[in-house]
Amino acid sequence: MIASRFHLRRPQARPTATAAPEQQRSYTHTVSNILILGAGRVGATVAEQLVYEQHNVTIVDDNPANLAPLTSKLDLRVVAGSASSPTTLREAGAADAELLLAVTPTDELNMVACKIAYQLFRVPTRIARIRNADLLAHEDLFSEEDGFAISHTITPAQVVTDYLSRLVKMPEALQVLDFANGLVQLVVTRVTEGAPMAGKALTAFNDVLPNTDRRVVGIYRNNRYIRPDGDSELHAGDEVFVLAESRQMRKVIGALHVVESPIKNVLLAGGGNVGYRLAKALQKDYSVKLVEADPVRAEWLANELAGVLVLHGDATNETMFEAEQIHRTDMYLALTSDDEDNIMSALLARQMGARKVISIINRSRYVDLLQDSRIDVAISPAQLTIGTLLAHARQGDIAAVKPLRRGAAEAVELVVHGTKNVSRVIGRRVDEIRMPAHAFLATIVRAGKVIMVHHDTVIEPDDRCIVFVHDKLRTREVEHLFAVKLGFF
Asked: Which of 67, 101, 307, 476 reaches 20 to 30 Å from 229, CA-CA?
């Protein structure tokens, strides 16, 4: 029973504006021809998103049955064949591709495909999904000169593991997203009765937290977006999106949500890639139990995870939950590869007294249905993964793309380059920048210092700007606004 798999790791540093002109990346260019190898969950989800953003997408898979559903609902090109075949890659348009995503289930196939794409077709950017930790430990394998010519690697299981770890540490949150190498966080939480900010306007934040700067970038009430300003009043039940320095985020959340007791006892269902990684990450700081249905896998997990109690059993079995005193569990996480099992076991755990319940759901429509149910947080691994991939297909120097509200909104981290003469934002006050109506410039990171934006904040070269976009259809306008004009080159 292998859990869903989804992380992005960058073995090579992204160029900056201080590089020599001939080494600078053309930040004004938008990728248009994208080749995806592998039509599994990740490949299909990314393809759907890229088609939605009006890129030219071709997807390759050796199983025609995986391609048929895509052709019926998406405007893209499909090619049946091997990802490591030069003939197949040529037919799929590798010679004209600007970005290749190798996300087949096999690490070695992804690596070889990247090498062929570079060696024979000179595809500029090549991203490979690599799950084998032994391979990831040898970055020289990915170099253009002596390796497999992989520009970036993704390990989807690690993306999910890191995300879940943050939720365990911050049980009041619905989402916790890192920006600027962890200096800034965006947290989504619900306002609760009795919280210091409940029933108060946002201006009261200065009295509640006088020495803690933060920016509320979105308020959702009954699924309706409210653009925040100082007079916006917070009601119990509101879903609030707030940015702050990571080291200050605990205080900020405490103003919006009644502080909960820390998580101590964690029960994980599913010992696949995600379950194993998460148990390993949590075992030093929490009391962790892991339930695995496969006896052989359970024995292997028990040998690998010295600090975890591994149980062989069925997480949908009420008797097993009773035996393990589920009512004393602070957080239950359903992490198997079966959506129905995850849903049923999560609902059962909640009914039997688990304090917090989180479930991985691979079908995005299920996530929409369950997010506001008795399951506290429903997570789509594919949605978590595509943000890291989309950063390479966007206009401008995009450091991160984080989907929000099941992909309807986004938070984007952009690095600005150039001078006032060739930039639409550099040297200008924030109140002079014509931001799209549904975008909110909230935070800047400058030389490692976090700055919460005010109307008179002036943008400088190399600033990392974090923008919340309520309507993702407007993201491209934001990217165009922050991109360098062609005159820079």
From this structure: 476
